[in-house]
Write a sequence for this structure.
C-alpha cells in the first residue's frame, strides 16, 4: 500500500496545473468580492448565492487540483 509521502514527483509534475488553477483562484476572489455583497441585497437569495458558491470553489481549486494530480501518480 502506498503512503502519501512517497509521491514527491507528482507534486513537481502538478505545479503547472496548480499555476493555472491559481489564475482561476484570482478570478474566484474577484467574483466573490463582487457577488458577496450583492447576495445580501438580492430578494430571492438564489441568483448571487450560486455565483458566490462558484467563486468559493474556484478559490479552493489549486488544492483540489494538486491533490488529484498527486493521487494519479503511482508510487
Amino acid at each position: 500500500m502506498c503512503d502519501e509521502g512517497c509521491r514527491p514527483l507528482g507534486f513537481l509534475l502538478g505545479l503547472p496545473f496548480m499555476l493555472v488553477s491559481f489564475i482561476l483562484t484570482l478570478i474566484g476572489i474577484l467574483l466573490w468580492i463582487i457577488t458577496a455583497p450583492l447576495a445580501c441585497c438580492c430578494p430571492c437569495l438564489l441568483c448571487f448565492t450560486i455565483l458566490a458558491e462558484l467563486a468559493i470553489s474556484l478559490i479552493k481549486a489549486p488544492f483540489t487540483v494538486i491533490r488529484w494530480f498527486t493521487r494519479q501518480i503511482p508510487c
